[in-house]
Amino acid sequence: MAQPQPAPYQPARTSAQIQARSQARSRRKAVALAFTLSALGALAIAAAGSLLVAPGAAHAQTAAPTTGGGWPTKPVRIVVPFAPGGTTDILARAMAPELSRAFGQQFIVDNRAGAGGNVGAEVVAKSPADGYTLLMGTVGTHGINRALYAKLPYDPIKDFVPITMVAAVPNVMVMNADKAKAQGISNVQDFIRVAKASPGKMNMASSGNGTSIHLAGELFKSMTGTFMLHLPYRGSGPALLDMVAGNADVMFDNLPSSMAQIKAGKLTALAVTSSQRSSALPDVPTVEQAGGPTLKGYEASSWFGLLAPAGTPADIVNRIQQEVAKSLATPAMKERLVAQGAIPGGNTPADFARHIDNEHKKWAQVVKTSGAKVD
Predict the structure, then answer these.
(1) Nearest CA to 328 among 339, 340, 343, 315?
(2) Of 21, 107, 164, 224, which sits most exposed with the smallest number of CB within 10 A?
(3) Which residue has the higher pLDDT, 63 or 227?
């Protein structure tokens, strides 16, 4: 039986047929072109990706990636490693609204006190390096503690990237006003006399082990040959409450947190711990001036600054530094900080990093000389 033959090709004869076949050929070409462009696009993206990833991997230890300018898209947390009421807390709460206005997102203060600032510092060290968790670090967390503690839960250098110093402040040697009057103490020489007459009878409050407040007192003890029982608190706030209540005798507090109680007459300022007098308390001498030859060379000031987890993108770090510096340069902020005895900062991340390194060397020697130990 004969097989049916396919119909022979019939060329289009009518305009409708010609148009239909032309449209079909166009559709086939469009599909082929789209496929080709898609394949080429994928190859181009892959090639571009390899160019971007390779250098980043090679320099992972020296540079963080950029963010593309999208940060911040949610609230940012500033961890304060001490209780509310101290200078660290005061400065963080002064900067938070300034940064909130500058970036259009809330900057929230989160107090995480304990272990001389180590608890809060560890929280930040182990947080994502995305710019949403910052630390208000101190001379304690990044200058003193690595010399004082045998083991820290964080590395002050490797786990953080410095942003900027917010302020430097002198400490101030203060006593409960009623206790000072009752014991006939009106200056540093009086204090040394009374302390030596009854070794161990007086106690010394601090904001925690390893803080500048603690070390300023230890340095004073070692240079004068006096002994006071150390009472470490979880920040200056609770320590000051006991100072005002008369439960603690002396404290080498950061000036800003003690200023209100000094002005109210509840605390007596015997001396400032800086090498020069403070413009906020011009009539109060330095420890060196008030202590005579025994305290020649005494100096123990504090500083506070913002840091972020290591690996935080450089553009975020630089943007924060620039806004902090801009805020600290305004007359209103300058006046506010200077009135509290603070010296505004705002230095670059590189300058702040060098300062931290120098401070570690200085305080390591103070720890060694004073024989300070963690209680």
Answers:
(1) 343
(2) 21
(3) 227
